[in-house]
Design brief:
The protein is an alpha+beta fold. Helix content is about 45%, strand content about 15%. It contains 14 helices and eight strands. Strand 6 and strand 7 form a beta hairpin. Helix 3 crosses helix 5, helix 7 runs antiparallel to helix 9 and helix 7 packs across helix 11. The model has no long low-confidence stretch (mean pLDDT about 90).
Length: about 350
């Protein structure tokens, strides 16, 4: 038997688990309680009914944090999604408020006044809407106050700057600690976090092409180094041709553990690289190095779209879903050969 307030679950024999919402006598917290009952299903249901009489007035409804912890936090989602959900939940200012006290008007006001990044604020409202849906399901509130349409904060779109191949070389931080990360982004289209998670000992050369396996990333914030990429397509081999390949191979063989480290043999924090870049280029985000590399590959090296998608870790769309998903199985050697051929033709 399940209800919005409590439930009875058969364990084995005459043992039944009773679960209900009540106030913890030690902490005063309104939370999920449980106990084992010995008897029949009927006596177990009667015992739960008695508990409801004793505890139904403990608290009108649980807090946002309780509903999140009991029903939403452990939701079976991918690690990438879990991190974003946790960051979004952390941005909510109503964690200790009871769910029936939150109104759409105050959420709208928060959206208009918060300093939280627009994308995080949008996800935060999505998480809160999920918490409210659970509250409706369990009878703590009659309707979800966030079912109305809210005006979301607008993302500021700055002009995107793309550097040419020559400009990328002029900007090279030669000899600086973050040179490897720059080279991987500017000439291999690695993402910022991916460029910090490359293990030097795993790098190799396929002919004249430098190859760095992308298996994880360094995330901004509390997560740090993680063993998963942005998505399934992002798990790939980052490839670099030309003089940048020679320099990266030289750096990968000098005894370091991480291709870009913090100077003490440890992986470098995302914020450290980001702040270093912003100090030199306050108007152009570092991710534009990746965009510049893609532009160079497409319009100077004349690489085909499906090759660029493979190199950048994008969902392969140019060949159509069936061909890309079920037929195309190019090896790293084939992709490296294609990249090198395009580079040589352009550099001739």
């Amino acid at each position: 038997m399940r209800s919005s307030w409590g439930s009875v679950r058969h364990i084995s024999g005459d043992r039944w688990e009773l679960r209900w919402w009540g106030k913890d006598k030690r902490t005063g917290e309104y939370r999920r309680m449980s106990k084992t009952h010995h008897g029949t299903r009927r006596t177990a249901e009667h015992a739960l009914a008695e508990l409801r009489v004793l505890h139904s007035d403990d608290a009108p409804v649980p807090s946002v944090s309780v509903v999140w912890r009991e029903f939403c936090e452990g939701k079976n989602v991918k690690p990438q999604t879990r991190d974003k959900r946790l960051m979004a939940y952390s941005a909510l200012p109503w964690k200790e408020r009871e769910v029936d006290s939150i109104t759409a008007l105050e959420v709208q006001q928060w959206l208009m006044e918060t300093d939280t990044a627009p994308s995080t604020a949008r996800r935060a409202v999505s998480v809160l809407r999920e918490i409210m849906d659970v509250s409706v399901l369990h009878g703590w509130i009659v309707a979800n106050p966030l079912s109305v349409k809210l005006v979301m904060p607008k993302v500021e779109h700055r002009p995107k700057y793309v550097w040419t191949y020559d400009q990328l070389w002029e900007m090279l931080p030669s000899g600086e600690w973050w040179e490897p990360a720059y080279l991987l982004q500017a000439f291999g289209a690695a993402r910022v976090g991916e460029s910090l998670a490359v293990v030097a000992g795993e790098c190799s050369m396929i002919g004249e092409v430098f190859c760095a396996p992308i298996r994880g990333q360094v995330k901004n914030g509390y997560a740090g180094l993680v063993d998963y990429a942005k998505n399934d397509q992002s798990i790939r081999t980052c490839m670099v041709a030309g003089p940048a390949a020679e320099r990266l191979w030289e750096l990968a063989r000098d005894g370091r553990t991480w291709l870009t480290d913090d100077g003490a043999g440890k992986w470098c924090a995302y914020s450290t690289l980001w702040n270093t870049w912003r100090g030199l280029n306050p108007d152009n985000p570092m991710k534009q190095l990746r965009a510049s590399c893609e532009t160079w590959w497409r319009w100077d090296l004349c690489l085909e779209s499906h090759v660029i998608e493979r190199l950048m870790g994008h969902v392969p769309l140019s060949m159509g879903g069936v061909t890309a998903k079920h037929y195309d199985s190019a090896t790293d050697e084939q992709v490296a050969r294609t990249l090198l051929a395009g580079y040589r033709k352009w550099d001739a």
